[in-house]
């Protein structure tokens, strides 16, 4: 990278101190208004987003978003409000609104702050702060290089959806009236490219990207453009399939969506509403015995790393699935109380779920599958967490004798999540590191393919 990797003037520590004071001011205002409990989060997010297309600058966007969100309790009555302004008058009105809401809501015995004994007290550095001092001109140059590498990679690349360079910084302070106070700062940067290829059969579009905490971890930028071109050209001359049943291999970026459905089904909100096909599955097998999933919330530079959750509860490594058996749910304090359980430090979501990979790389998984479908993209919303029914549009590649034969499109893949999870044959070692859900490709024993 030609741009500097450290900021010319890093003010993040000053901003953290300011946000921490804003939080304490909000708590004082809440106490003065008669609230019995309160929690508040204040944040500042800044970014640069540059888009280029066909060798020209298309967009340059700078952002600086500020916000305060708070929840107050009057006994077991709760009210929440937020503002995008750190001005004291705006904050005062936001406190008034939250208190007014709380006074007019029904009591809920499950309302309340998290147990203070669980709050984070130590705050190790997770190596999440890596400002990238790239300016707009440098970002434009970088985007043009990425797109040019993709457009020049193959003569069948006929058009471009553009390349993007995104730079992001976030600082956050969180506090509550029970004594928790914590601050975090993090960065996230992204390079991407989307291209269009054309032949006598028509046009196809595809993309590639890289997302990192530190710009030093980016792959070679030109590689992103070339990979986008390779993926786009590979989709040319796509065919439809006749209706059949066969093995299905989800590539990592699609496989993590499959894991995401599982996480939604074992999350507190779906469970206490009894709107999940995995209600009452704690301690029961959901996957084959070789499947292991562990939450690792404090991975250095992890995309989901955090020392504390949205309630200030200290995060910790914990198994979610061991030997195929569901070990726990994903709970914040409210959902835990609704279920008669304890919080799992997941208020706000999961932190770095690691799906233990197997020994096979992608090529070995193809050989293991023999004949079947590789899914590289899914479309539509045909997933029911209540029943587990799964039906989505898809595209990818047909595989014969362990090798990719030709691209396919305009098909539907269907099954039930319960059967899909139980029917996992293998998990690849081709783990995609660009997400907080870390999994390789997932090979399923069988799904129904609906085509021509």
List keywords for this structure.
2 domains; 5-stranded mixed β-barrel; 452 residues; 9 helices; PmbA/TldD fold; alpha+beta; 6-stranded antiparallel sheet
Sequence of secondary-structure elements: HEEEHHEEEHEHHEEEHEHEEEHEEE
Spatial gap, N to C terminus:
48 Å
Main sheet strand line-up: 3-2-1-4-5-6
What would the CATH topology of the largest domain be? PmbA/TldD fold
Strand element count: 17
Low-pLDDT stretches = none
Specify the helix fraction band. 10-25%
Main sheet characteristics: 6 strands, antiparallel
What gyration radius follows from the Cα positions, in whole Å?
24 Å
Give the overall shape, derived from the CA principal axes.
globular
CATH level-4 homologous superfamily of the largest domain: PmbA/TldD superfamily
**What is the CATH class designation of the largest domain?**
Alpha Beta
In CATH, the architecture of the largest domain is 2-Layer Sandwich
Indicate the structural class.
alpha+beta
Keywords: Hydrolase, Protease
Family: Belongs to the peptidase U62 family.
Domain Metalloprotease TldD/E N-terminal: 38-102
InterPro entries: Metalloprtase-TldD/E_C, Metalloprtase-TldD/E_cen_dom, Metalloprtase-TldD/E_N, PmbA, TldD/PmbA_N, TldD/PmbA_sf
């Amino acid at each position: 990278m030609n741009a500097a990797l450290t900021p010319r003037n890093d003010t993040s520590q000053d901003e953290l101190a300011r946000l921490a004071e804003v939080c304490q001011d909000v708590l004082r205002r809440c106490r003065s208004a008669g609230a019995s409990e309160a929690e508040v989060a204040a944040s500042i997010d800044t970014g640069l987003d540059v888009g280029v297309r066909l060798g020209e600058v298309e967009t340059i966007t700078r952002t600086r978003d500020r916000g305060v969100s708070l929840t107050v309790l009057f006994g077991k009555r709760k009210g929440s409000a937020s503002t995008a302004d750190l001005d004291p008058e705006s904050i005062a009105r936001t406190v008034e609104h939250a208190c007014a809401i709380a006074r007019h809501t029904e009591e809920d015995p499950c309302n309340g702050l998290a147990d203070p004994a669980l709050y984070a007290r130590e705050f190790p550095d997770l190596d999440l702060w890596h400002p990238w001092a790239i300016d707009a001109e440098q970002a434009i140059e970088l985007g043009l290089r990425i797109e040019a590498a993709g457009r020049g990679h193959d003569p069948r690349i006929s058009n471009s959806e553009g390349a993007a360079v995104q730079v992001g910084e976030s600082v956050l302070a969180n506090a509550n009236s029970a004594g928790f106070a914590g601050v975090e700062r993090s960065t996230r940067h992204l390079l991407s490219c989307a291209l269009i290829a054309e032949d006598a059969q028509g046009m196809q579009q595809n993309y590639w990207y890289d997302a990192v905490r530190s710009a030093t971890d980016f792959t070679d930028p030109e590689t992103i453009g070339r990979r986008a071109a390779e993926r786009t050209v590979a989709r040319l001359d796509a065919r439809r399939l006749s209706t059949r049943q066969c093995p299905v291999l989800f590539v990592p970026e699609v496989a993590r969506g499959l894991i995401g459905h599982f996480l939604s089904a074992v999350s507190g909100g779906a469970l206490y509403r009894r709107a999940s096909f995995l209600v009452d599955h704690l301690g029961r097998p959901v996957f084959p015995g070789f499947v292991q999933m562990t939450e690792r919330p404090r991975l250095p530079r992890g995309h989901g790393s955090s020392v504390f959750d949205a309630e200030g509860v200290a995060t910790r490594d914990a198994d979610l699935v061991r030997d195929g058996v569901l070990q726990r749910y994903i709970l914040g304090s409210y959902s835990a109380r609704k279920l008669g359980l304890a919080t799992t430090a997941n208020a706000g979501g999961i932190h770095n779920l690691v799906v233990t990979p197997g020994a096979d790389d992608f090529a070995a998984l193809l050989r293991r599958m023999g004949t079947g479908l590789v899914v590289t993209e899914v479309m539509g919303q045909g997933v029911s967490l209540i029943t587990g029914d799964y039906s989505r549009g898809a595209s990818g590649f047909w595989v014969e004798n362990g090798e990719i034969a030709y691209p396919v499109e305009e098909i539907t893949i269907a099954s039930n999540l319960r059967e899909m999870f139980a029917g996992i044959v293998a998990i690849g070692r081709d783990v995609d590191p660009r997400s907080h859900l870390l999994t390789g490709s997932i090979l399923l024993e069988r799904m129904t393919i609906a085509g021509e």
